[in-house]
Amino acid sequence: MADGVAVARRPRRMKQPAGDRSVLTVNYLVLAFFGIAVLYPLIYVVSASFSSAEAITSGAVKLFPVDANVDAYRTLWQSPAVVQGFLNSLLYSVSGAVLGTALTVLAGYPLSRPDLQGRRTLTVFLLVPAVFSAGIIPTYVVVQQLGMLNTRWAIILPGAMSVFNVIITRTFYQLNIPHELLEASRVDGANDFAFFLRVALPLSKPIIAVNLLFYGIAQWNGWFSALIYLTDQHLFPLQLVLRDILIQNTVEPSQLGSQTAAQLVERQELFNKLKYALIVVGMLPPLLVYPFVQKYFVKGALIGSLK
Amino acid sequence: MTSTTARKHSFLRRVLGCWQLYVMLLPPVVYVIVFLYWPLYGLQIAFKNFSVAKGIGGSPWVGWKYFETFVNSYQFWPLIKNTLILNVYELLALFPLPIVLALALNTVRSKLYSRGIQLITYAPHFISTVIVVGIMVMMLDPSVGVVNQLLVFLGGSPVDFLGNSDYFRHVYVWSGAWQTLGYSAIIYLAALAGIDPQLHEAAKVDGASILRRVWHIDLPGVLPVTITLLILNLGSILSSGFEKVLLLQNNLNLGVSQVIDTYVYQVGLQSSIPQFSYAAAVGLFKSVIALILVLLANWLARRVAKQSLF
């Protein structure tokens, strides 16, 4: 088939080797296949969440919703566990993003300054625990000793900063804030704080955006720290609620609240529909945010490989 | 002697000269001490008979007791075997594919097409492990899942992918392919973007086909990154995918899905009588081997690829 295309269209340029057209065609097809393979499950889940339970079970849902309705979402909206989990996750994500980014920038900027005494030592000090981490048990004991078990702090604090991000941020500052700029503002009488606040920070919007996104999504997607540190269900992030319902299948009808929810759970096929809607709710926020920061990724990867 | 004091003075002055930078560093350093170094100090729990009442400091030393218990336990070899097979399989299957994807994307002439495919294939990276496993549970369900409906449609019989230990490793690795391939290709795309376009122009003038140019220009261009990443991956071969393994684990596939990390979680935190010391010892055992692998890999990277992390 690929050859057919090559023959049907006469090559415009003499220089173009005959095989290239078919290679390109195969290339486009393979990429399209992979793209569809990645996209299909996502579309299917969204379509199923809007379809009727009967259509899902009978296999009538192939790509687009069948008997479209929003019953599942209405049910979730009335479920205290899901709404509470959503709000908790929002809180953890926003505070985790702000705190993580602040710590990362506060570490990354000074470490990028060649005139900081003991720069190498400090960098090694940060890298050692990143290479050799203590593991979950000693970390758990620390959180326990700090009295943070079963509090929101246990979710936000222990994983607040990533040393890897500090290194990338440091490299960003090294490459993007020329030393001459610092000299110039010194002449104008600016001290380090003033320079950082008025010059360095405004110039570091891209790296701040990437950090916010990275930490925010990590918090939104996290569930394991909640699993080990929390027993109070009112503090559970959405992902942990989802795990209980989607994977463990341990859910009390009462946990989902309203009368309709109880009826849904009683009938397995309706419950499945509810699960699809839960998946959509859980994955939507990161997917909505990421295209806006996507343009920085390749740049970020470049910085990372330059390191 | 005067020169040393003078040097000390000037050092002190240079330190004081940038005191504001140290003030900025204070919060992150405090964070690292509390949440990264304190647990490292707490690792001694692996050598003690820990009791909550006495605390880490007050508990009695027991030496290598828990390490010996672990190495001699009947679970030792199955755990090592499961961990290694799962991670080596993952590495062999998923390491080359992002390179192929990056080369394919790089060859595409239409920017719009290439960007579109990238936008789609990065997306699963941002979806949580819980959701990915949730989607798998739904789609692989023996009765209502799409995959099994397709199997039945094609004349096969439904397969319980998640409840059968034969499929656990394949399900784990290939769902990982779905989730990570696109995003893993980024670093290779960045390396490809750094290749001088004149090389391609010159080769085109000489009549080189696309495949020849990929082979002689693009592949050598990404080789340094490839070697570094491969060696670094070798270093982390004991410790990937803990969360997903834990989520996919059930009593039916425990024989192949119990890896060192999940075992630590099970004996340390999940059981009704948590064995902190024993679990910490197992975790430390793994960390030490992982550290040796990282150092070995770093040494190799420096020698082979002339690149290293530290």
From TrEMBL, chain A:
GO terms for cellular component: plasma membrane. It is found in: Cell membrane. Residues 86-289 form the ABC transmembrane type-1 domain. It is a multi-pass membrane protein. Keywords: Cell membrane, Membrane, Sugar transport, Transmembrane, Transmembrane helix, Transport. InterPro entries: MetI-like, MetI-like_sf. It comes from the Bacteria. GO terms for biological process: transmembrane transport. The chain crosses the membrane at residues 21-43, 90-109, 121-141, 153-173, 274-293. Belongs to the binding-protein-dependent transport system permease family. This is Multiple sugar transport system permease protein/putative aldouronate transport system permease protein.
Automatic annotation (TrEMBL), chain B:
GO terms for biological process: transmembrane transport. GO terms for cellular component: plasma membrane. It comes from the Bacteria. It is found in: Cell membrane. Keywords: Cell membrane, Membrane, Sugar transport, Transmembrane, Transmembrane helix, Transport. The chain crosses the membrane at residues 21-40, 84-105, 126-151, 171-193, 214-238, 278-301. Residues 80-297 form the ABC transmembrane type-1 domain. PROSITE patterns: ABC_TM1. Pfam families: BPD_transp_1 (PF00528). Belongs to the binding-protein-dependent transport system permease family. This is Multiple sugar transport system permease protein/putative aldouronate transport system permease protein. It comes from Kribbella italica.
